[in-house]
C-alpha cells in the first residue's frame, strides 16, 4: 500500500462497536464504551517498566509492561492495574530479521497463546497474527494499515477497524494514543502495539539474523517471569496490608 493511499485509508477509518465482543485475553478488558489509552515508552529506562498505559480522561492506569531488556528473548510481562500478570511475551528473530513476539498465558507452566509477527518498512506495514476468541472459540485474523513509523496506524480484526493509533506531541514518538472500539479486548490491542514497537526499535550493535529460541529455554524464561510478577504483587499486597494496620493503630 502506497504512502498516499495508506494515509487516506487511515483518515477514513471509523471505529464502530463490535457486533460481537472481541475477547482474547479476558472479558473484563473489553468495555462496552470506547476507550482512548495514553501509551508512553521509556526508551532509556533501566527499571524494567517500559510502558504505563493510562486512560486519557481519568488518568487511571490499566496496564504496565515490565521487561527484562537484557535477556536473550527480551522477556516482557503485561500486568493489570493490580500488578497481576495478564500475558507474557518472548521474542524470536526469524530468518530475514523479522521479530516475532510469542505470547503466553501466565500459567505455570506457561501456555502458548498466539504469535504476533509484524513487518514494518518505510513504504508498508503488515501484520501476521491469528488469535482465538476465549468466549466464542472462533479464530480472528488481525491486521494493520497506515504508517506505524509516524504512529498513524489502524488495527483491524477480520478486516474491520478495531483500534486507531494517534501520534502524540513527542518528536521521538515515545508517546502516543490508541483509541479502542467498544467491545474490543484492550489487552490484546496493547500486546499488538508492543510487538510493533519491538519490530521497529533500533538496537545498535545487535546482530539481526535468523535465530530460534528453544521451547525449553523460552518456557523457563516465561515461567521465571510469571513467578517474579506474582511475588512482586504479593509483596505489594503485604506492604499495603501493613500500612492499613498502622493506620488503624494511629
UniProtKB/TrEMBL annotation:
Cited InterPro entries: LOR, LOR_sf, Tubby-like_C
Gene3D superfamilies the record matches: LURP1-related
Record region (Disordered): 231-250
Family label: Belongs to the LOR family.
Protein name: Aste57867_17610 protein
Taxonomic lineage: Eukaryota, Sar, Stramenopiles, Oomycota, Saprolegniomycetes
